[in-house]
Amino acid sequence: MERIIKGYFNKFISDFDYSDDVSELTTTFEKFCAYVILQNELPNLNFSQDEIDSVNVGQYKGIDSICFIVNGKLICSLQEVEDLLDLNGYLEINVLFIQSKTSEKFEDSEIGNFGDTIKDFLNEEPHYPQNQEAKIYHEILLYLYDNFYQVRELKIKGYFCSTGKWSSNTTCQTTIEKKNAEIDSEHGDKLKNGNCKLIPLDSPELQKLFEKANSPIKAEFEFANKINLQDIPNSIKEAYYGTILFSEYRKIIIDPETDNLRNLFYDNVRDDLGEKNPVNLDITKTIESGSFNTFPLLNNGVTIIAEENKGGGNKFILDNFQIVNGCQTSNVLFRHRDMEGINNLTVPLKLIITNDTDIKDNIIVATNNQTEIKEEQLMALSEFQKGLEKFYISLNSEIFYERRVNQYFGTSIKKKCIVNLREQIKTFVAIFMEEPHLVSGYFGRTYREKKDSIFLTEHKYDPYFFSGLLQYKFKELITKKDIDRKYNKARYHIFMIFRKIHEPFEFNLNLLKQKKVIKYIAELNLAIQENNIINSFNKAIEVVDKSGIDIENPKEIYKKSTTNTLMDKYKELYK
After folding, report:
1. Per residue in 92-119, pLDDT tens?
2. Closest by alpha carbon to 106, among 58, 42, 168, 61?
3. Stretch 352-371: mean pLDDT, rounded?
4. All structural domains of the chain
5. Which residue, 248, 337, 455, 460, is most buried by CB atoms nearer than 10 A?
6. From CA 205, how far away is CA 5, in angstroms rounded?
7. Sheet of strand 346-354: strand arrangement
8. How far apart are the C-alpha atoms of 144 and 118, rounded to whole Å?
9. CA-to-CA distance for 254 and 268, rounded, in angstroms?
């Protein structure tokens, strides 16, 4: 591996705490390639190690990773697709196939094998044998075929990665064109609004993607029809209100290289509520009626907060920015981005440039207190989480809570040490609300169902910190091979049982508001001390093993009956 790409690869290994054992470097390089490609397809999403691992399909002929991006979300289970269809009422799918080679050569035979396996995978009954990981993703594909009338878009991309340099003046280019044509010929009826694209990624391209993955999201656009707001606090650098043409707004919300909607919405907990939502129906009717002139009169508009504007005059260049109000508007506009005349539509826009976190929180509450998320929840998402972030720091721990996307960008803190909002919610709900089956599915559903019960101002911070620490310790043991990686699929169930086994007295949700919970967590912490931790986790794993649950079967993980079975086995062994 040439020196520069090796340096990028080593940075990836360090950030995510992957093993640098020579025997595992090939598999780790596969994950490196999946990471840079996914971060390019879904910028600003901050993929976790678990998500990177989940797309790897192991020893499957010609393919290392399979990624289903459905309605702008990375999907790893059939349950998640079903939840998204129920929420949005439609499906837009990009399927990515990735093959990675550490060698510095592109080989005709390997590219041909890659294309043949993609072509075979798209069949209802593949001829090539599939391992368990590949079967999980093929089952998702069959579900999409069964619900094809609700599929608006299906695109296929195949990335063939090598540490060498690509030349289009070789027979490898001919092989790629041939395989693209073969897949289109055999499966063109399934490809809606697109065709198959096999794309070579060489060392310079991988470097470029890695740099992009580790850079703040950026947008350049013209904002001419605006008012410069005066008499603003000193902590606000700039503030504007006006309207922006969609031809310019699309430069903010759509990634120019992938044509995908960027993940810009506040803390990535907001969902597109789909076309069944009354607000979105009204927005859609206005657009489809061609009433572009009335759109800014009927729409509340969009609020963007950015840390810096490097432009001047009417030209804006934003770094590290988020849309804190306007998720539904942006999603509806994105779905209509190819409509004739849409570029002439104007969008009301409020733009604030500040890096003052208190100002940001106040703006977020003020701009959202009449939307689908109640003001008290928004207050919790600012005040409580601000306190939780400080609580993590006060313990001088090895982990840090990231309440804002890209909060630790540019610091020396490694990605493996960051507990983001999504993981905080999932681990807390699994451990203390005893619903690991729920959090194993689509995160958006978890958030919608539990947002009224979490981050309450009366809650103590200790259980939240314990949740973040427990998942961090578990990942460490997986990396060190002290725990078999197969148990990672049932990790949220293991976390719940871990608490049940080691709790000093019986837990109930009211305890979250009482000082007594501090003592409760202090006793639990004894179970994750260095000299106890492996034995402590093994007890929880024993419950899983003796329950008879097939953790290799993803359908089992998402069933409430699975949680009930584990609870019964726990009571049998420990009560």
Report:
1. 899 999 999 988 889 999 999 999 999 9
2. 168
3. 72
4. 3-213 (3.40.1350), 218-368 (no CATH), 375-574 (no CATH)
5. 455
6. 10
7. 218-222, 315-325, 302-309, 346-354, 236-245, 225-228
8. 16
9. 16
